[in-house]
Write a structure and sequence with these properties.
This protein has 318 residues and is mostly helical. 74% of the residues lie in helices and 0% in strands. The protein is globular and about 55 Å long.
Length: 318
């Protein structure tokens, strides 16, 4: 059963929280990849998230009603989660954190473009300016050093991260229609469970901690993994889906540009790194881009389908 739709303001708050949490997840995943392999990191984050999400779902909802085609949909969505998690983790092995942050900042453009192409929910003329302004803000914050990045193979790592973002964009688009019948909480744990079904056998091919032993993992590794489990995977993903349900994937996607802002705030508060004119200007451009997409999409969709109880028009994804 689908949960009540959030207001536009509450949807934006959910999307902002998810983006802020995910800003710290890039650093946490990089730390976790020291003692853990990419597949181990992904499997453990999934198991930890399910340990939180399933009891929460049983407390709030506890029942599901599946149609025959729902299993096919959840299979595809689960593969999207699998691709997003593994491709980004493998990519982080080959690319610097700064360069990865810039690429992840391009996620809104990928989501908005694919959503416009597949769902026809917004035309490209409506969203292109806001996406462009926000992406310029991402570049402004990251700067030349971050664009060039460091790593053993930045080209390979960047390609893997981009592929992971495409998987996430398709997952976001597919979830919009699925959440007409299922709550974001149910969608989150079911798709995570499906992804784990395919991930666990991959531990045979990609492992590190299973050989070196649990005692080899430092406290920082466990703390980083805990952050990714609880905040980035369980709570962050659910908050994102609540926001997508309320405003749609095209308008939601632009909030991904807040991820570099979150990373900047984490570095300032925790690492005491300076925040200067370049960083503040970049944040301003990102916020301006979010505002532009919101304003232009409100003009295009008045009233917005699926918000405040209006019916959502069903569209086939071909």
């Amino acid at each position: 059963m689908s949960s009540p739709r959030l207001s536009v303001g509450a949807s934006y708050a959910s999307l902002t929280c998810a983006a802020m949490v995910w800003g710290g997840s890039v650093v946490a995943q990089k730390v976790a990849l020291g003692p853990f392999s990419p597949v181990e990191t992904s499997v453990l984050r999934g198991l930890g998230a399910l340990a939180i999400l399933i009891p929460l779902w049983r407390w709030k909802e506890s029942t599901l009603s599946f149609a025959q085609d729902d299993w096919k949909t959840f299979l595809l969505l689960g593969l999207g989660v699998l691709g997003n998690h593994l491709l980004i983790l493998f990519g982080l092995q080959f690319i610097g954190a700064g360069a990865a942050g810039v690429i992840i900042g391009a996620s809104p453009a990928i989501t908005a473009f694919l959503s416009s192409l597949l769902l026809k929910d917004l035309s490209l003329r409506v969203i292109w300016l806001g996406c462009l302004v926000s992406f310029i803000g991402v570049i402004f914050i990251s700067g030349k050093d971050a664009v060039e990045g460091v790593g053993s193979n930045p080209l390979l790592g960047g390609g893997l991260v981009i592929a992971g973002l495409v998987c996430w964009a398709l997952y976001t688009i597919g979830c919009r229609r699925t959440m007409e019948r299922f709550s974001p909480l149910a969608v989150t744990w079911i798709t995570l469970a499906v992804s784990l079904f395919f991930e666990v056998p991959l531990l045979i091919l990609n492992h590190k901690m299973l050989v070196s032993g649990v005692q080899s993992v430092p406290l920082a590794g466990w703390m980083a993994l805990l952050y990714v489990m609880v905040f980035a995977t369980a709570l962050g993903q659910q908050a994102w889906l609540y926001g997508v349900e309320g405003v749609g994937p095209s308008r939601a996607g632009i909030f991904g540009n807040l991820i570099p802002v979150s990373a900047l705030l984490f570095s300032f508060m925790i690492l005491a790194e300076p925040v200067g004119f370049r960083e503040l200007t970049g944040i301003g451009l990102i916020v301006l881009g979010v505002w532009l997409v919101d304003c232009r999409s409100r003009e295009e969709l008045e009233p917005m389908p699926g918000v405040h109880g209006e019916p959502v028009e069903e569209r086939e994804i071909s």
